[in-house]
Amino acid sequence: MPEIINPLWLLGLVGLAAYLIGSIPFGVVIARVMGLGDLRQIGSGNIGATNVMRTGNKLAGVLTFLLDAAKGAIAALIAWALLGEDAAQTAALAAFLGHLYPVFLGLKGGKGVATFVGTSLALAWPVGLVICAIWAVTFKLSRISSLSALIAAGLAPVLALVLGYGSMVGLFVILAAMIFWKHAENIHRLRLGTEARFSRKD
C-alpha cells in the first residue's frame, strides 16, 4: 500500500469525484447515440464493451472500451498529478467502483475490465501492457472474453510485484478480486463449458 500523505477528508473527496467519473455509463450513452437501443435490454444486459460488441457494431464496442478505460485512467492521473500516489490509488479504486456500481444506473453497472485496464496503464504502465498482452493472447486462443479477463486480472498482482510496483499490489488484489466477483456467473459457465465464444469472424 502507498504511504498516506494526504488527510483522509481530502482522499474522501478525491474518491467521491472519481466515483462519479467512474459512474458515467458510456456503453449506455454510446448505444443510445448510435441508435442501438437500450444496452440493458440487449444480450447479457451488461453495460460494458463486450455486450456492446454483441450488438454487431464494432465501432460502438471499441469506443465503449476506450471511454470506460479512460475514465479510470484520467481519474487516477489527475489525482496523482495533484496529490500523489495515495490519492491516485484512491481515485483508481473509486472510479472502478463507480463503473461496477454506478449511481446513475441504480448501482447496476459493468464488470470493470476496461476500467481495470485503464487504471493499470495509468498507474503502472508496464503492468498494464502485460495485462493487455495476456488478454489478447488468451482471447486469440480461446475466443472467450471473460476467460481472458479473468486470467489477466488474476495475474495482475503478481505482475505488479515482479515489475517493481510493490506499493500497488494491494490495489491490484482488490481490483482482481472484484472482477472475479462480478464474473461469478461467467466462471460457473466456464466450468460447465457453456460460456459464449466470439466467432472467428468477429
The radius of gyration is 16 Å
> What is the count of DSSP helices, taking H or I runs of 4+ residues?
10
Helix-strand sequence: HHHHHHHHHH
β content, as a range?
under 5%
Number of domains: 1
The counted number of beta strands is 0
Shape: globular
Largest sheet: none
Structural class: mainly alpha
Helix content: 55-70%
- Uncertain segments of ≥5 residues (pLDDT<50)? none
End-to-end Cα distance: 40 Å
Mean pLDDT: 90
Report on the structure:
The protein is globular. By secondary structure, the protein is mainly alpha-helical. The protein has one domain (8-192). The mean pLDDT is 90. The protein starts with 7 loop residues before the first helix and ends in a 10-residue tail after the last helix. It has helices spanning 8-22, 26-33, 49-53, 58-83, 85-100, 113-123, 125-142, 145-162, 169-182, 184-192. Helix 4 crosses helix 6 (113-123), helix 6 (113-123) packs antiparallel against helix 7 (125-142) and helix 8 (145-162) runs antiparallel to helix 9 (169-182). It has ten helices and no strands. 69% of the residues lie in helices and 0% in strands.
Please give a handful of descriptors for the protein shown.
202 residues; mainly alpha; 10 helices
Q: Secondary-structure blueprint of this entry?
A:
Elements: H1 8-22, H2 26-33, H3 49-53, H4 58-83, H5 85-100, H6 113-123, H7 125-142, H8 145-162, H9 169-182, H10 184-192
Helix pairs in contact: 1-4, 1-5, 2-4, 4-5, 4-6, 5-6, 5-9, 6-7, 7-8, 8-9
